[in-house]
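From the shared-data thread, chain only:
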Amino acid sequence: MIFWILLALAALIIVGLSVYAGKLLYMLKAQNKRHLVAREKRIVNITQSIQTIAFAMQQQQCDLSEGAIRICRLLEAMPLDPQPDYERDFPALHNLFEKVKDYPTHEARNALPKSERRAQDKEREEFESELESSILVELEQLKRFNQ
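Structure, as tokens:
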């Protein structure tokens, strides 16, 4: 008699644990789906931002160096695995990015003496003019950029 009671209790525990495991698996599946949807939405938002910045750069509403920094940072933030080699795909843009990425911005730039700011601006403009034609070709690709 005790054997049957223990067996029924064991079966009840197994059924309870099975139901709990099923619930956890369902919750995990729902969480993974939410993460996938959020990831896809992020990719779409980043892609639209890249296209908008490329258009603004082409229309000369945004400096080439500022656009290069923004686009390269967005490409780095693209949640793809494995990460494509954007440096190979957009070499002129990345070249300009590498040259100007360490320039101070905002308050740090304002804290610099005027002569140093002018020297940096001149250097930045030289980089931009040197790479402008190549970057403009890449901007056409970026306007149609789609991941």
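The helical segments are 2-58, 64-77, 86-89, 91-100, 106-110, 114-143.
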